[in-house]
Amino acid sequence: MATADFEVKQLLKAYRKGLISDELFEAQMRELGNGAQRGYTFNGKTYATEQEMIRALLDEYRCAENFAAEYLDCWSEVSDQDCVKGGLRVIQQREAYHARLLEARLRELGGIPQCTVPAEQRTKEMALYASTAKTDAEKLRHVAGQIEDLPKVLRFITDVVDQIHEDQQSKELLRSLVQDEMSSGTWLLEANQLLNGTKAAA
User: Fold this and answer.
1) Which pTM was predicted?
2) Domain CATH code at residue 53
3) What letter does residue 167 receive in the DSSP assignment?
4) How many C-beta atoms lie closer than 10 Å to residue 133's C-beta?
5) Which domain holds residue 16?
6) Burial per residue of 2-12, b for 16 or more beta-carbon CB atoms within 10 angstroms, e otherwise
7) What tens digit of pLDDT does each residue of 20-43 get?
């Protein structure tokens, strides 16, 4: 609340000195009012500041990407299809790189990596992806069922991006990562269609 009060005072000063137009003053006041009413939300939680929300996302996203890189590496090692192995290697490297970028940004914002994958989820996912008894086709079918609607799957990131007004560096970093995720997801869905015949060839 103190931050909002300070921003209102600064806006009033600029307005009285004629540094900003009536329209800009009104728009800025509306934005401040909206921010005060809604707060910042991520994953069902409300945060007092934009930076707190961003740090929470960066930590959880970093954690998920690290784990994805780990199980994709195991899957690639036991993959029974060369065409799948090639794509998995690219996506695995992408996820590992994302995790490093996200952790670096988290630390730049004063955060400390804390999120960990629940033991039950880790055991379940690793048992599937590292399995030599399960085929690539079966694993792809499982993945496709989870990511069928890519924009919905990525909404946990895009909803945060839409709320960011101050930290443009984090905003654009996240927007770029979403593009990567769309590319990875599209490849996985296409590979599933190829191996499982879930969609007629266009």
Assistant:
1) 0.79
2) 1.20.1260.10
3) -
4) 8
5) 1-34
6) eeeeebeeebe
7) 777 777 777 777 765 554 589 999
Are residue 176 and residue 98 in the same domain, yes or no? yes
Q: What is the pLDDT of residues 91-109, one digit of tens each?
A: 999 999 999 999 999 999 9
41 has which bridge partners?
46
Q: Using the Cα atoms of residue 120, residue 155, residue 195 and residue 89 in order, give the sign of their dihedral.
A: negative
Q: How far apart are CA 46 and CA 43, in angstroms?
A: 8
Structure tokens, 7: 């921003």
Residue owning tokens 């085929």: 135
Q: Angle at CA 71, nearest 5°, toward 65 and 61?
A: 15
Q: Are residues 174 and 116 in the same domain?
A: yes
Q: Other C-beta atoms within 10 Å of 191: how many?
A: 21
